[in-house]
Specification:
Layout: H1 2-12, H2 17-36, E1 41-51, E2 55-67, E3 70-74, E4 78-82, E5 86-92, E6 97-103, E7 124-134, E8 137-146, E9 155-161, E10 167-173, E11 178-189, E12 209-212
């Protein structure tokens, strides 16, 4: 019944559903191509967790550096290094320090800073929901719906600057009715980073516990 109603709405608006899907894919292809042409970029971002009943529950800021499939993510209580082959998750607190080391899984559907701009290619159906204003910018809102039952994320919303085709934010819904939103605040493009910038050097930390799961 719901699908019938939605289809009817599109028909009344004179918009073909296939065209809407093609529009979303074209926008995302432009975003993907734009980011792949960069030598690398560093950005600060704000991430929040909210629910419909409680509003914003948690809010914080972070920093991310991306070069191809490599990234370095800095949050308030942890840092993640990924050199394309190995990922180090460094946990820091006033009581202890530890780093967990894993191999990168090539077929993983995990959403990471280095693949968020092309995650739509990995088994998601894309749909252009329309345009909205976000921090004074007109952005496209695109809904990605997973085509696989075992996918880690069922729905992802991407927000793309209409004029520049920059990815400005994305949202992920969880099973509890909450919503994670990540929004870029400041982006420095075409920066060059050495490959070792994305490697966690354990020798620089004296009292750190190392958990190697490779």
């Amino acid at each position: 019944m719901l699908k019938t109603v939605v289809a009817g709405v599109f028909l009344m608006m004179g918009i073909d559903i296939g065209i809407v899907a093609q529009g979303a894919e074209k926008i995302l292809a432009d975003v993907s191509e734009r980011y792949q042409q960069l030598d690398g970029f560093k950005a600060t971002f704000e991430y929040t967790y909210s629910t419909d009943t409680d509003g914003v529950v948690q809010s914080n800021v972070g920093e991310v550096t991306v070069k191809g499939d490599k990234y370095r993510l800095v949050l308030d209580d942890q840092e993640i290094y990924n050199d394309g082959n190995t990922v180090w998750t460094y946990i820091k607190s006033s009581r202890y320090e530890e780093v967990t080391i894993n191999s990168v899984e090539e077929d993983s559907d995990e959403l990471t800073p280095s693949n968020v701009y092309n995650i739509y290619k990995r088994g998601y159906e894309s749909k252009l929901l329309g345009e909205k204003n976000m921090d004074g910018k007109t952005v496209y809102e695109i809904l990605l719906t997973s085509e696989g039952k075992s996918s880690q994320f069922k729905e992802i919303r991407l927000f793309v600057d209409k004029n520049t085709k920059d990815l400005v934010a994305w949202e992920i819904a969880d099973d509890a009715g909450g919503r994670f939103q990540y929004k870029f605040k400041e982006v420095n493009k075409n920066q060059r980073f050495q490959d070792d910038y994305f490697v966690f050097n354990t020798s620089e930390y004296k009292n750190i516990e190392i958990i190697d799961l490779r």
